[in-house]
Structure formats: C-alpha cells, structure tokens
Amino acid sequence: MLQVTTDDTHAEDRRCDSVLHVLEAQLASPMQDADALMAHVACAATAIGFEHCAYGLRLALPFTRRKFAMVSSYAANWRARYLEAGYLCVDPTVRHGLRSTTPLLWSDALFGSAPQLWAEARSYGLRVGWSQSCIDLRGRIGMLSVARSSEVLGAAERQLREPLLGWLTQLAHRALAPLLAADEEVRLTPREREVLQWTADGKTSETIAQILRISVNTVNFHLKNSIEKLGASNKASAASRAVASGLLD
Question: Would you list the domain boundaries of the chain?
Fold first, then answer.
C-alpha cells in the first residue's frame, strides 16, 4: 500500500500542481481531436498515481434514449467488451455520476449490483478506482474515472489526491465535452432566444408579438427557425430542448 507521509506531502502537491498547470495549457491550445486531448489527460492521471483513465459524457438531448460518448486509455479489448455487454446501463459509477458530483471510490459493495462487470474490470487491471462527475450550463454531464491495478487508495492518499483529481475532472470536461458534443451545438439568434423564452413561459405567439412589439408573423418566423435548428417537431418541444441545453439561461 502506498504510504503518504507529512514530509513528502508538500513536494507531491507541488509536483502534481505543476503537472495540472501544464495540462491546462495543453488543453487551451488550438482545437485537437478527442483522442489527442485524452492522451494529455491520461498523462496527468499517471502523474497523480493512476495507470488508466476514462471520460464519459451524457448529452442533454434527446430526452429519450440518451446519448453517451466516451474516450479512455483503457485497453481496446476492455472498451469493446464494455460496449458489447451493455455495461453502461448497469455501471454503478455511471448511475452515481448522473445524480451526484460527489467523488466516488470504487469498492466491492459499490459493484454489488453488477458483479460480472466488476469481475471483468478487475481482470483488465481496473482494481482500484475513483470517479467524479460535473454538470455544465449546457445540461451535459461529464464523468472522469481513474484506475490502477494495485495499491489501495487509503484515507491519507485520498485526502492528498482528491483535490487534484477534482481539478483534473474539471479540466477534462472543459476540453472534451465541446468536442464530443460538437454535432449537438446549436446557436440561436438573440431574437430566437427571446421568443423561445416567452414560449417556454407558456405565452402564445399573439401575446409574444404584443410583448416584443413585433408582428405575429415575425414571431412565428423565429419559432420556425428555432424548431429547425433544435430538431424539434413543434414550438413546445423546441422550448424544452432549448431549456435543457442551457440556451435560454
């Protein structure tokens, strides 16, 4: 088991802080693909003490049959097996991450509801793990998981590592979410946004026209454009999609 003493704590903090500052600069560089960015995140995770890491993103839309995207440094065979077996649907770390941003330490008890998943993950060297999610204004939920094959994550080490891992989670989400959700990006004009805000409040086109001092035809024109941009079937669906995506905040 890794022992973290008082004498080495400050040196370890400085080293890991330096690694994360370098990562922050790397992630701020011109747009790269998700795998290239994940490689930088994986290097930082290694420096913090973990052999493997993965980042998963749940998109805000659609409301049914939610879309997920994932990049990781896990073995290719394990990535394929995870998808093939549908483990995303039973993974307790994912269930936790969709409901809470509290850091989560992997354990036998945690995976009690998915023993096959836990046994197979451990066979690939994912024996000691930690996960944390974050939610952004676009309604996207991202989760970073780090794992290693040995050395239990004890209380002293967790106290040292957790702030660094929380920082790493935020950096990963900030860099990777826009790339993984690029196809979902919608841009509304200021007037489209304004009309949808009133629509979300239950106002009719006639009432919105009076409020904004424009014609009903103009209101409906902006609603039609918004419906098309958001891939909605009607104005109520467009308004709900815009709200869920953080476009009206």
Answer: 6-183, 186-244
